[in-house]
């Protein structure tokens, strides 16, 4: 079966990863590409001998799509996903889901009502480093996780990432991968507390360094730090469980398990694994290959929104639930 897809968003992750991956598959046809920038849409469409659009509804109505990749900035999420779901088109949505819990719920409701497949771009879940960590931690009690996402500031002056109202800040837009992997390994979070500072990077209008502690329903505790003031990129997790102490990235895992040192590295592109799984799911009409569904990704999104709130809160903040109709709020003082 050939899976016919479209793209909403022709820059960023689509241009960096997804175009190459789908182009390498002989069972995928790219029929149309939409971008608010006509030149970007036309250039990408020419690559695939596809049709260029600047309106996602015209893309959906003009092509017979099995699925669409929604690869747009955080502030733009909502209309493209809802319109696709209403037309019965399966969705691959790049993170973060939105910039408000209410908007993410609205999208989820449309997906749920239409009963379409929806995967979210948490590529760490498809990395061999995280897969191996899950294998080594299977059956063990996780006590604590320490995570970090340290790096610099993306884009040039005026780039949307640098504005909190457009990106949601570093926790929501970048470190969400680390928060998602913490949830994957330690379970859902019942409360968060944290602090942030803005001392070094004038190019952003949000905290350039954050420190957030999480209390998990499992009894584990975890901590994630972020900064966009670092000279080099460093994103990893360190896990302590019974009989295992691990350091995890997408590409490698090191540590000690049951008294034995381990050091393993991997040369697998998690983005390719992620896209392959989504295409397989769409072709079969079976969501099981998708490791990050929209409803599960909502819990990570709500966690990062609670983490942002905790930076300024006096007390612990409880992440919002997908169906409780409330935003994150203080759990106690």
Written overview of the protein:
The chain is of the alpha/beta class. The chain folds into two domains: 3-123 and 272-293, Rossmann fold (3-Layer(aba) Sandwich), CATH 3.40.50; 127-264 and 300-332, Dihydrodipicolinate Reductase, domain 2, CATH 3.30.360. It is built from eleven helices and 16 strands. It has an eight-stranded mixed β-sheet with strand order 8-9-10-7-11-12-13-14, covered by helices on one side. The chain has a six-stranded parallel β-sheet with strand order 3-2-1-4-5-6, sandwiched between helices. A hairpin with a 3-residue loop joins strand 12 (244-248) and strand 13. Helix 4 (79-86) runs parallel beside helix 5 (101-114), helix 5 (101-114) packs antiparallel against helix 11 and helix 9 crosses helix 11. The longest helix is centred in the last third of the chain and has 17 residues, at 294-310. The protein is globular, with a radius of gyration of 20 Å.
Ordered list of secondary-structure elements with their pairings:
Layout lengths: L2 E6 L3 H12 L4 E7 L3 H11 L2 E3 L2 H7 L4 E4 L8 H8 L3 E4 L7 H14 L3 E3 L7 H10 L4 E9 L13 H4 L1 H5 L2 H11 L2 E9 L11 E8 L4 E7 L6 E8 L2 E5 L3 E6 L2 E6 L4 H15 L9 H17 L5 E3 L10 E4 L1
Parallel strand pairs: 1-2, 1-4, 2-3, 4-5, 5-6, 7-10
Antiparallel strand pairs: 7-11, 8-9, 9-10, 11-12, 12-13, 13-14, 15-16
Helix pairs in contact: 1-10, 4-5, 5-11, 9-11
